[in-house]
Amino acid sequence: MGWILVHHSQEVKEELKKVYVDDLKTDEIDTHSIFRYYIPLSILVCYILPTMIPCYFWKESVFMAFCVAVSLRFVAMLHVTGSTNSLAHMIGERPFDKNIRAADSLLAWFMTFGDEGWHNYHHVFPWDYKASEYWGYKGGICSTFVDFFARMGWAYDLKTTSADVTIKRRLRTGDLSSSIWGWEDPNMNSDDRALTQINYPQKKTQRE
To answer: Where are the transmembrane segments (predicted)?
Structure first.
Protein backbone atom coordinates (compact mmCIF):
# COMPACT_ATOMS: atom_id res chain seq x y z
CA MET A 1 0.00 0.00 0.00
CA GLY A 2 3.04 2.25 -0.29
CA TRP A 3 1.64 3.77 -3.49
CA ILE A 4 -0.62 5.93 -1.30
CA LEU A 5 2.47 7.72 0.05
CA VAL A 6 3.77 8.56 -3.43
CA HIS A 7 3.10 12.09 -4.64
CA HIS A 8 1.37 12.50 -7.98
CA SER A 9 3.66 13.46 -10.82
CA GLN A 10 2.97 16.61 -12.78
CA GLU A 11 1.72 14.49 -15.68
CA VAL A 12 -0.85 12.80 -13.44
CA LYS A 13 -1.95 16.16 -12.04
CA GLU A 14 -2.51 17.49 -15.55
CA GLU A 15 -4.54 14.42 -16.51
CA LEU A 16 -6.68 14.73 -13.37
CA LYS A 17 -7.64 18.24 -14.44
CA LYS A 18 -9.17 16.75 -17.60
CA VAL A 19 -11.61 14.55 -15.68
CA TYR A 20 -15.13 15.75 -16.48
CA VAL A 21 -17.02 16.61 -13.30
CA ASP A 22 -19.04 19.60 -14.50
CA ASP A 23 -22.27 17.68 -13.95
CA LEU A 24 -21.38 17.31 -10.26
CA LYS A 25 -20.39 20.95 -9.92
CA THR A 26 -23.72 22.11 -11.32
CA ASP A 27 -25.82 19.66 -9.29
CA GLU A 28 -27.47 21.64 -6.52
CA ILE A 29 -27.79 18.64 -4.19
CA ASP A 30 -24.13 17.68 -4.54
CA THR A 31 -22.61 21.13 -4.22
CA HIS A 32 -24.88 22.69 -1.61
CA SER A 33 -25.93 19.75 0.54
CA ILE A 34 -23.40 16.93 0.54
CA PHE A 35 -20.21 19.00 0.58
CA ARG A 36 -21.60 21.50 3.06
CA TYR A 37 -22.30 18.80 5.63
CA TYR A 38 -19.42 16.48 4.74
CA ILE A 39 -17.27 17.14 7.82
CA PRO A 40 -20.06 16.93 10.46
CA LEU A 41 -21.53 13.83 8.78
CA SER A 42 -18.09 12.19 8.66
CA ILE A 43 -17.52 12.82 12.36
CA LEU A 44 -20.98 11.50 13.20
CA VAL A 45 -20.85 8.34 11.07
CA CYS A 46 -17.17 7.46 11.49
CA TYR A 47 -16.58 8.28 15.15
CA ILE A 48 -19.63 9.14 17.24
CA LEU A 49 -22.14 6.48 16.14
CA PRO A 50 -19.66 3.55 16.15
CA THR A 51 -18.75 4.49 19.71
CA MET A 52 -22.29 5.06 20.97
CA ILE A 53 -23.92 1.94 19.49
CA PRO A 54 -21.85 -0.65 21.46
CA CYS A 55 -22.19 1.43 24.62
CA TYR A 56 -25.96 1.68 24.31
CA PHE A 57 -26.90 -1.80 23.08
CA TRP A 58 -24.48 -4.08 24.96
CA LYS A 59 -23.16 -1.79 27.68
CA GLU A 60 -19.61 -1.61 26.36
CA SER A 61 -17.24 0.92 27.89
CA VAL A 62 -16.60 4.09 25.93
CA PHE A 63 -12.86 3.38 25.83
CA MET A 64 -13.25 -0.17 24.46
CA ALA A 65 -15.94 0.87 21.99
CA PHE A 66 -13.73 3.63 20.63
CA CYS A 67 -10.64 1.39 20.44
CA VAL A 68 -12.40 -1.43 18.57
CA ALA A 69 -15.31 0.09 16.65
CA VAL A 70 -13.45 3.24 15.66
CA SER A 71 -9.66 2.89 15.87
CA LEU A 72 -9.25 -0.78 14.92
CA ARG A 73 -11.92 -0.55 12.23
CA PHE A 74 -10.37 2.59 10.79
CA VAL A 75 -6.86 1.10 10.65
CA ALA A 76 -8.15 -2.16 9.15
CA MET A 77 -10.16 -0.38 6.48
CA LEU A 78 -7.24 1.86 5.55
CA HIS A 79 -5.00 -1.16 5.07
CA VAL A 80 -7.63 -3.06 3.09
CA THR A 81 -8.33 -0.05 0.88
CA GLY A 82 -4.66 0.70 0.36
CA SER A 83 -3.57 -2.87 -0.32
CA THR A 84 -6.44 -3.83 -2.61
CA ASN A 85 -5.09 -1.94 -5.59
CA SER A 86 -1.75 -3.66 -5.09
CA LEU A 87 -3.19 -7.15 -4.69
CA ALA A 88 -5.42 -6.72 -7.72
CA HIS A 89 -2.32 -6.01 -9.81
CA MET A 90 -0.25 -8.89 -8.47
CA ILE A 91 -2.34 -11.97 -7.66
CA GLY A 92 -5.02 -13.58 -9.79
CA GLU A 93 -6.06 -14.49 -13.31
CA ARG A 94 -6.10 -12.32 -16.42
CA PRO A 95 -8.97 -13.75 -18.47
CA PHE A 96 -9.57 -10.70 -20.66
CA ASP A 97 -6.11 -9.22 -21.20
CA LYS A 98 -3.00 -11.18 -20.25
CA ASN A 99 -0.73 -8.27 -21.23
CA ILE A 100 -1.68 -5.97 -18.34
CA ARG A 101 -0.93 -6.33 -14.63
CA ALA A 102 -4.51 -5.95 -13.42
CA ALA A 103 -5.90 -9.34 -12.39
CA ASP A 104 -9.16 -10.89 -11.25
CA SER A 105 -8.37 -11.77 -7.65
CA LEU A 106 -10.59 -13.76 -5.30
CA LEU A 107 -8.58 -12.40 -2.37
CA ALA A 108 -9.32 -8.81 -3.40
CA TRP A 109 -12.94 -9.81 -4.00
CA PHE A 110 -13.21 -11.19 -0.48
CA MET A 111 -11.53 -8.18 1.14
CA THR A 112 -13.78 -5.66 -0.62
CA PHE A 113 -17.06 -7.63 -0.56
CA GLY A 114 -16.83 -8.19 -4.30
CA ASP A 115 -16.24 -4.65 -5.52
CA GLU A 116 -12.55 -4.84 -6.48
CA GLY A 117 -12.19 -8.53 -7.25
CA TRP A 118 -12.61 -8.39 -11.01
CA HIS A 119 -9.84 -5.92 -11.75
CA ASN A 120 -8.74 -7.34 -15.10
CA TYR A 121 -12.28 -6.91 -16.38
CA HIS A 122 -12.46 -3.40 -14.93
CA HIS A 123 -9.30 -2.28 -16.76
CA VAL A 124 -10.38 -3.82 -20.06
CA PHE A 125 -13.95 -2.46 -19.88
CA PRO A 126 -13.65 0.69 -17.73
CA TRP A 127 -17.04 2.03 -18.85
CA ASP A 128 -18.95 -0.86 -17.29
CA TYR A 129 -20.61 0.48 -14.15
CA LYS A 130 -20.49 -2.98 -12.53
CA ALA A 131 -16.67 -3.19 -12.83
CA SER A 132 -17.38 -6.90 -13.24
CA GLU A 133 -18.76 -9.39 -15.73
CA TYR A 134 -21.15 -10.65 -13.07
CA TRP A 135 -24.45 -9.36 -11.73
CA GLY A 136 -25.71 -9.09 -8.18
CA TYR A 137 -23.68 -9.76 -5.06
CA LYS A 138 -21.04 -11.75 -6.93
CA GLY A 139 -20.31 -8.68 -8.98
CA GLY A 140 -20.14 -6.45 -5.92
CA ILE A 141 -22.25 -4.72 -3.34
CA CYS A 142 -21.74 -1.34 -5.01
CA SER A 143 -23.26 -2.45 -8.31
CA THR A 144 -26.19 -3.97 -6.41
CA PHE A 145 -26.58 -0.63 -4.64
CA VAL A 146 -26.62 1.19 -7.99
CA ASP A 147 -29.15 -1.30 -9.40
CA PHE A 148 -31.41 -0.63 -6.43
CA PHE A 149 -31.47 3.09 -7.14
CA ALA A 150 -31.86 2.44 -10.86
CA ARG A 151 -35.14 0.68 -10.07
CA MET A 152 -36.18 3.82 -8.20
CA GLY A 153 -35.23 6.00 -11.16
CA TRP A 154 -32.39 7.76 -9.36
CA ALA A 155 -29.69 6.11 -11.49
CA TYR A 156 -29.98 5.82 -15.24
CA ASP A 157 -28.06 5.23 -18.46
CA LEU A 158 -26.07 2.46 -16.81
CA LYS A 159 -23.48 1.26 -19.29
CA THR A 160 -22.40 -2.36 -19.33
CA THR A 161 -20.73 -4.81 -21.71
CA SER A 162 -22.52 -7.59 -23.56
CA ALA A 163 -21.52 -11.22 -23.15
CA ASP A 164 -20.57 -11.43 -26.84
CA VAL A 165 -18.09 -8.57 -26.50
CA THR A 166 -16.47 -10.03 -23.39
CA ILE A 167 -16.11 -13.45 -25.04
CA LYS A 168 -14.53 -11.97 -28.18
CA ARG A 169 -12.09 -9.92 -26.11
CA ARG A 170 -11.21 -12.95 -23.99
CA LEU A 171 -10.46 -15.04 -27.08
CA ARG A 172 -8.40 -12.22 -28.62
CA THR A 173 -6.18 -11.09 -25.73
CA GLY A 174 -7.14 -13.10 -22.66
CA ASP A 175 -5.25 -15.82 -20.85
CA LEU A 176 -7.14 -18.85 -22.10
CA SER A 177 -5.59 -21.03 -19.43
CA SER A 178 -7.76 -19.22 -16.87
CA SER A 179 -10.70 -21.32 -15.81
CA ILE A 180 -14.12 -20.32 -17.12
CA TRP A 181 -17.23 -22.43 -16.94
CA GLY A 182 -20.79 -21.26 -17.07
CA TRP A 183 -22.73 -18.54 -18.84
CA GLU A 184 -19.78 -17.00 -20.66
CA ASP A 185 -18.12 -20.29 -21.58
CA PRO A 186 -17.13 -19.95 -25.29
CA ASN A 187 -18.20 -23.58 -25.79
CA MET A 188 -21.76 -22.87 -24.66
CA ASN A 189 -24.00 -23.33 -27.69
CA SER A 190 -26.81 -21.03 -28.82
CA ASP A 191 -29.54 -23.56 -27.96
CA ASP A 192 -28.49 -23.60 -24.31
CA ARG A 193 -28.49 -19.82 -24.24
CA ALA A 194 -31.94 -19.64 -25.84
CA LEU A 195 -33.42 -22.04 -23.29
CA THR A 196 -31.94 -20.23 -20.31
CA GLN A 197 -34.37 -18.34 -18.10
CA ILE A 198 -33.21 -14.94 -16.88
CA ASN A 199 -34.91 -13.62 -13.76
CA TYR A 200 -35.27 -9.90 -13.06
CA PRO A 201 -33.88 -8.72 -16.42
CA GLN A 202 -32.42 -5.24 -16.31
CA LYS A 203 -34.80 -2.60 -17.57
CA LYS A 204 -33.46 0.15 -19.78
CA THR A 205 -33.98 3.56 -18.25
CA GLN A 206 -34.09 6.81 -20.13
CA ARG A 207 -33.02 10.25 -19.04
CA GLU A 208 -36.08 12.35 -18.35
So the answer is: 37-57, 62-80
